[in-house]
Amino acid sequence: MNIQQLEYIVALDDHRHFVDAAESCHITQPTLTMQIKKLEEEIDVKIFNRGKKPIEPTPAGEEVIMRARQILREVYELHNFVSIEKKSIEGEFRLGIIPTLAPYLIPRFLPQFIQENPSTHLRIEELESEQLLKALHHDRIDIGLMVTPTDEKQIKEVPLFYEPFLFYAPYDHPFMHNKFIEDKLLDPAKVLVLTEGHCFRNQTLDICGKENQTNNAFGFFYESGSIEALKSMVRKGIGYTLVPELSVDSMTDSPFVRRFAEPEPVREVSIVVHQNFSRQLLIEQIKNAILDNIPNNINKTKNIKKIKWR
Q1: Which sequence ranges are marked TM in the entry (predicted)?
Q2: Residues 6+ apart with CB under 8 A from 191
C-alpha cells in the first residue's frame, strides 16, 4: 500500500469512471486499473463494484475510501507544515561557532542579520570543532559555523568562502623581505600555535610541515587559545605564526603580514547542519548576511590550496 494507490481510489470514487479518474491523476487508465487491483489484492478487500454503471464502492470499499481520504488529508497537512517550517525562522535558534572565527565573523554579519530578521533570536556559543560536531549530532545546537570538510555523512555543509592563511612575523624578520612566503621555508619549531583542539592549529602545523616538527626553539613552551595573544607575542619579537585573513587589522597588523605564494593555502569556512535540519531559510539568511559583510578580497585568489584540519 502506498500514497499513490490511496490517491487513485479516491479519484475513482470522485469520478466514478476509470478514464476520467486516470486523467485527473495524470496517468493512463490501465495503470490506474492495475494499481487499484494490486491494492485490493494486498488488503484482500474488493473496493469497487465494477458491475455497476457508473462504478461505485462496495460497502467495505466505502470504509477504505473514507480512511484513505483521512490519511491523504493528514499527509497534505504534514507537507504543508514542513513547507511552513522551512520558510519560517521565527523563534530561538542555537548557533555554534569555532573560536578562530567568532571574534572576526560575528561582528561582521550579526547586525545585518538582526535587522533583517527581527523575529529570530540566535543563541550563540563558541565551540571547538569536534565539540561543535558532537553538539550537532546530539541536537544541542541547530546550526554551526566552522571549517570544513568534516567528512561526516550526517552533516550537511554549505561552503561560504575560502579564507587565506597569512604569515605573521616581526617586521624585521628575514622572511619579511620577500613579497610572498614559501611554506617550505617555515620551521615548525619556530611557529607559535594554538592549543590542542583548535582546527586552526592542525592546519598551521600542516602548512609548516608537521612531519618535520621538532622541539620548539623558544626556550619555553607556550600554546594559546587566542590568535590575538599569538599576534601580540610576535609583535614583541618572539617567533612567528599564521593567522586567518579576517583577523588582520589593516591599521595595526600590516607591517607584520605577508601573503603566501600561490597556490595560496586557505581554509574552507561553511555553515554546517545535521542532515535532518529543515529550516533552509535560516541557512540562506545567515549565508547572505555573511557574504554581504566579508571583505571583497576574500575569495578573489583563484589558485588556492585547501588545507584540511582532520
Answers
A1: none
A2: 204, 205, 208, 239, 240, 241, 242
